[in-house]
Amino acid sequence: MASGRVEPAYCRGSHTLVVSMAMFKQNRQRLCERLHKNNKVPKGAVILLQGGEADTRYCSDHEPLFRQESFFHWMFGVEEPDFYGAVEVDTGKTMLFAPKLPAEYAVWMGKLLTEDDFKVRYEVDEVYFIPEIAKVLKEKSPSVLLTLRGLNTDSGKYSREAAFDGISEFKVNNEVLHPEISECRVFKSDMELEVLRYANRVSSEAHKEVMRNVKPGMYEYQMESMFHHYCYFQGGLRHLSYTCICGSGDNASVLHYGHAGAPNSKQLHDGDMCLLDMGGEYYCYASDITCSYPCNGKFTEKQKGIYNAVFKASRAVMAAVKPGVSWVDMHLLAERVQLEELAKLGLIQGDIEEMMKVRLGAVFMPHGLGHFMGIDTHDVGGYPEGTERINEAGLRSLRTSRTLEHRMVLTIEPGLYFINVLLDQALANPEQARFMCQEVIEQYRGFGGVRIEDDIAVTEDGMECLTVVPRTVEEIEQLMAEGEGHKVTLPQEAGKPSV
After folding, report:
1. Kind plus residue range of the DSSP H or E element containing 292
2. Which pTM was predicted?
3. CA angle, corner 339, sides to 338 and 341, nearest 5?
């Protein structure tokens, strides 16, 4: 809220991307155009959104770093907490309502911005302070306020509906807006694609920086630290898109490793396979990239075999992606390719189509092939109202089952993992066990896993890969060898202090 940029563009220095507020104006126009075609939206309707709120940690006065609520960001691009925003559907005229802070806040937070400052900063038509919201909206005489309430099919949580003192005096519809704005977010504009390219470009370089510097003896969290430092220092990406997954050895088989109970704390041992799922976000637009490689820079034959199986699946999907293709079919394609490669490696045997029928692929890849990505890592719109998930192993984990269309942005992230609980279940299931070569599979327990994740945009006749990192075994080994001469110095492991 305090002294900050006033010009109508977001930028973190001459070395970073400039994002014009015109991007958000275009987003609002796209939404209004959709609502114009909806016969449930009368003339004189006004969209009303409530932004994210500043909060403190538990009962303390510590404020965690604020990140804007995603729908509000998509509409307005506002960085600060505690705002409201309104848009007249008929005209596109836009209003922001800023929190009214006491004058003494200027001592602690710097110069407080005025209504005119915010008007210029976010390139909107009108700005008021929140105490005026009921009065201003009454003067607009909206036929209905369109508020946001809808289910996120990934989190199972509902979006927060706008509320303010006096809203009961207005007619409110909280059903129309959510499906329409979600569908808008599925399809990225040219300007949005440029921000996503930038986030990917910086995050790709950060992955390469880690790749150059990783070595046995490090800790998983040091890889996380190197990644975050590069993203922020070199690219101005203050936030990461999600908690980094830096699994080494068997930890690489834990799909959501890095959480509070397993916080990237293991030391890397010579020969460990590492799975690094890390992405930075720029102005709330995400990247989501996974690289897998041995921490010593040299693949063993086993590691090479599993890695190349996943790489082949990744590239088979990329070659098939285009508008009109079913994402479910892409998942099945990745499974089929990986099963074929596992058979060549001697881990499984038999008819591939019969394996597909008993969902053997989900034993080695229990997650979905990928997901929509944008302002959220797992972006909205995967399952529009009325769409149901496929209730089969692996397929039920897909975050969308839609047919691909131009301007969709997704991740392609096949993987192979050796997860003891899934291997044990499959070996105890006669339908699946008949295909599994148990003696060979036992040799891979503790291997961990491999995931290769790229972010792609669907084009008019194919796809664009936004991620630019070494992908072949040869490319990875070459980059890691080049980094040998200037790896970061590890802290000395002196006598461990205790308290």
Report:
1. strand 289-294
2. 0.96
3. 65
